[in-house]
Each structure stands twice: as structure tokens, then as C-alpha cells.
User: Fold Lipoprotein from Parabacteroides hominis.
Amino acid sequence: MKRIYLFAGAILTGMLSFSCQNDENYADKPLLQNLSYTECAKGLKSVFDNEYAECSFIDAHTMHVTLYNANINCGVTNIKGIANLDENNVISITLQTTGESANCICDRNISFDINKLTTGVEYTIQIKELSISFKVSFKEDMGITKVNNIINEN
Assistant:
């Protein structure tokens, strides 16, 4: 009987230490991860004010965001980003683009994960270079939440 208690205690201790490691790993992650983007939509010029976002729950601290039809210069060849979260739950994303500036704008889709979030909180996501922002409530049962009310701050 003592062996069963010792075995159960060892398993419980292992599970608790693994759980703490996951929380520590989450704290070490950057706020913005896995940024990717599409090339310019072929044969289409940008139609302004048609951006929308889809947000989904990944885990208790991470949300996936895809911004559709973002108006970006055609000459951009690479996009990177960093993010900051302030005390008012505003996530400010700064995009860093490279490439030659072209005399055209095209629609691209941008996807990324945002870490270090708290479930049950409404966040405002601002992407400075695109002059847009939107609000989304981060919760476990959010499914894929479509956000149509993108605010263009131009």
C-alpha cells in the first residue's frame, strides 16, 4: 500500500513541476510570435476599408490573429513585428518592413500569435503602420471570432 502512495506522490510531483515549467516557458515567450504574411494578391489592386480580422483561442495565454486585406505597399519583401502590452490591455504592434517602395498598394493577409494574455479580458489590438485597431474579447469559447469593425485611424 505504501508503494501505491509513493508512486502516486511521485506522479503528482512530476505533474506539478511540469505545470510550473509550462508557466515559466510561457513567461519567456515574446508577446508577438509566428508572424507570417501573404504576397500581394495577383491582379487585384487594394480596395481600402475592406480589412477584417479573425481571432481564435490557442491556449490559456495565446490568441491567433489573422488580418485579412491589409493595405501594404507592393514593394514590401519582408515583414517582421514586435508588440507591447500596456496596463489598459492595449496591444501595440509595430511592423518592420523591408523592400523598395513601389507606387502601388496591394492587399495582403497577416497572421500572428499573441502571448501573455489573460482569458476573459477584452484587448485592443493596434497595428501602427497600417493605422488600424480593433477590439476582441479573449476567451476559451471564442471559436473563430470575426472582427469586422476595424477602425482606420487615417
Q: What stands out?
A: The radius of gyration is 20 Å. Confidence is low (pLDDT under 50) at residues 5-24.
